[in-house]
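Researcher: Let's do a round of design. I'm pasting the structure tokens now; please hold your answer until I've finished.
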């Protein structure tokens, strides 16, 4: 690491956290999509079961 120029160190110091944040954002977006789909499925099933009771 000592052989890298100061410019490279500074750029990597900014680039690495930004890339990690972008990756986390994509992952979190995928998780939210799955949760939304699961909630929709559960609510639809709940309505069907509620209608069967009556």
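Researcher: That's everything. Go ahead.
Model: Designed sequence:
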């Amino acid at each position: 690491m000592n052989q890298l120029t100061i410019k490279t160190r500074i750029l990597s110091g900014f680039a690495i956290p930004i890339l990690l944040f972008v990756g986390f954002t994509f992952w979190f977006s995928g998780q939210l999509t799955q949760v939304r789909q699961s909630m929709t499925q559960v609510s639809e099933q709940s309505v069907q079961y509620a209608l069967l009771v009556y």
